[in-house]
Amino acid sequence: MAEKLLGKEVNKRIEERIREKMAFLSGKGIVPTLCTIRIGEDPGDVSYEKNAGKRCESLGIGWKKIVLPSDVSQEELLTLIRELNQEPDVHGVLLFRPLPRTMDAHLVENALLPGKDVDAMTDLSLAGVFTGKNEGFPPCTPQACMEILDHYGIDCTGKKAVVVGRSNVVGKPAACMLLKKNATVTVCHTRTRDLPEVTREAEILVVSAGHADTIREEHLKDGVIVIDVGINVNQEGRLCGDVSMEAAEKKASRYTPVPGGVGGVTTMVLMEHTVDACLRLNNLKAEEG
Questions:
Q1: Domains by residue range for the chain, with CATH
Q2: Which of 55, 152, 164, 194 is deepest in the core (most CB within 10 A)?
Q3: What is the pLDDT of residues 233-283, one digit of tens each?
Q4: How many helices (H) and strands (E) are present in the chain, helices listed first?
Q5: Positions in the chain whose pLDDT score sits under 70
Q6: Please, are residues 39 and 74 in contact by the beta-carbon 8 Å criterion?
């Protein structure tokens, strides 16, 4: 029977770190504050926004919610971001993406101060992931994957890791983070030939394909560790990942369920990034927290 790598267990560990830092900041009269910016009414964004708000409330983190109409202009959005850059009581900013196609995404994303970029939207934050210099903050989702591996004591050293997906949001950063953990990494994408042949080599498989059941039994070797980043809705209207749950239970030694796996940890990582951003912006060292 495959072991489920449950996100709630990982969250307990992250929450302990956050509460220590919050107590330190509280003693100085500082409240870390996250600002979320949502454009339109995408159900996935609304759900994530709601969960982030609940997490902020439970941890004592301030939350400023901004919702813009779907036809908001690029200049209006840029003006808002510039205002938030100058707002001393806002420490982290999360802009939901993708942006409307009418906008220059690169221009908008890089308008945000890297110090307030808590989900690696800016070039500098992404560069920090690729160079290992810890500038800015890494994307929350791939960091959540690493938090899960760490919590469950999964040593990546020397292991063959395969990442399915090559986006700047998950795939590429996850590959770099696995390399930092001394795994030997292969990245797959839509033009990979004979995907099952490649993924069957994986001892650790991270999947961010964006489609339900992309990974089935023929893609998995016996005993593989599966980290499923996908969040989809199946024909029955239930949440599911990119990996067939039945296949994971049959072939994997350990896997993250959907729901109950990576998603909740991603939100908790966002909370810690906000607290750490507050520490940095106030010239306080995180270890003091």
A1: 28-113 (3.40.50.10860), 140-263 (3.40.50.720)
A2: 164
A3: 888 888 899 999 999 999 999 999 999 999 999 999 999 999 999 999 999
A4: 10, 11
A5: 286-289
A6: no
